[in-house]
């Protein structure tokens, strides 16, 4: 009887563990997002007190996850910023490979937004940047925690929260020129910017869809899991808009993944009013669906797991597509 009881208990643990873990991820992402997008952080404007608080929070999280620091002493990577601000700071931590490896996967998510901008006819002046990109940074933190708990990876994993993105991709450009592990050995940059907060989906697309040769690899990873790849034409309009451009223009593979509007089962979702990106209305609201957020995170996890095992053979076929004209 005792053995049977134990087996039942063990079976329950094995069965329920994935649900417990996913629930934990959802809670963690929500907590991070709500803090980073709160009015206390004043819209995380470049050079502001609010963005310093955001950087401090990210560094504290990296510390509690026990990521490694740059030169063993700091998570901050300061870089010169043009104009009045003078200096800004990426926040970066990493997990070292099990055996010596120069290769790395770099996760990026920008943590800056537009700060406080007073306008006569507007009551709310804080650009909270909840979808763009507090939730992306929250996902970056949660991925760091998940990978740290998963044990030592085969290649290095870098978690890079960038600053100065909205004003010209400054933080990511600086990292590519001052990387922790050699830039020419970066397997791929997986950028998180624009996360799905509308609920579970079954289609996805990749920025960029041209000028690189790894779209088939991504399909090989995700399509057997029930995901459908789509390729809307407007994707090409954003070739130089994400932190990925800083990597791609130097010939380093990089992608941003978004989910589409197709619900599980094939129906197309009704659009939700989630407030405008790049306006004071980009805030966390009650109609956010955290299941969708957690699911989106899993897509990044699958892609990273694959490229840790298959680190060679992908490339940028046309870096000029990602250079500012
Ligand atoms: Zn963004």
From TrEMBL:
Q: Which Pfam families match?
A: Peptidase_M28
Hydrolase keyword on record: yes
Q: Which InterPro entries match?
A: M28_fam, Peptidase_M28
Keyword check for Membrane, yes or no. no
* GO BP term (any one): proteolysis
Q: Which Gene3D superfamilies match?
A: Zn peptidases (3.40.630.10)
Give residue ranges for domain Peptidase M28.
90-299
A molecular function (GO) held by this record is:
metalloexopeptidase activity
Task: Provide the alphabetized UniProt keywords.
Answer: Hydrolase
Q: Which domain of life is it from?
A: Bacteria
- Which named protein is this? M20/M25/M40 family metallo-hydrolase
**Origin species:** Ulvibacterium marinum
Q: What is the lineage of its organism?
A: Bacteria, Pseudomonadati, Bacteroidota, Flavobacteriia, Flavobacteriales
